[in-house]
Amino acid sequence: MPKVKYILLDCDNTLVLSERLAFEACADLTNEILEKKGLSDRYTVDSLLEDFVGQNFRGMLVGLQKKHNFQLSPEELEDYVAQELGRVTQKLSEKAVPCPGVPEVLKNLKEQGYPMSVVSTSAKPRVVASLIKADIHGYFPDEHVYSAATSLNPPSSKPDPKIYLYACEQLGVKPSEAVTVEDSKSGATAAMRAKIPFIGYVGVYGIEEGKEKMEQMAKVLREQCNADEIMYDWKEFPELLKKIEARN
């Protein structure tokens, strides 16, 4: 039975419970921007998550300008991206924790000899801060942490598959020889477009938003993004990996 050559993993709300923490910092800055532009709209953490989950702040700013009909100069955009990165990295370095079951699974995968890499939309300093605080940084050599926001020039954001294709190229594997785990529609779409077999992790929605949202996301990832498998708990990962390996 052929073994998967590389396990690629999303970070935010897949390895680390970081999305809500990041969006807390993000919502404050987003509302400051809207206020400066003379707009009355305001975001809560939940409404921001609803509109922009899975995107990095650069991607969010593009969406915000379209949605609320205002413009940022390139200089303003870069300044806000830098501000957001500082605020979020600080918060994650203080409060990030791993998703339930992740440390045990990573330990097991390392013992079995699977090489692992992180492929995230988020800026690399933020990803590394999350991994360090969650105490799982040791499983991912620094050069194997890839970020659509900072590893690519020009920067990108999932659902664009560029960061996955870049990571595979750097690691010397074909997309079909890897497996990834994604929790959001944008991340799952990037994996699908890159033609990487992927497992849709929905357990995080059960933790943060309840069973109904969890099942809703399972349906989205399965039907709209063609997830190879759906994972409700990280304990299921070894079995799901075997299933994918058996098909290849």
UniProtKB/TrEMBL annotation:
One of its GO terms (cellular component) is cytosol. This is HAD hydrolase, family IA. One of its GO terms (molecular function) is phosphoglycolate phosphatase activity. It comes from the Eukaryota. The lineage of its organism: Eukaryota, Fungi, Dikarya, Ascomycota, Pezizomycotina. GO terms for biological process: DNA repair. Transmembrane segments: none annotated.
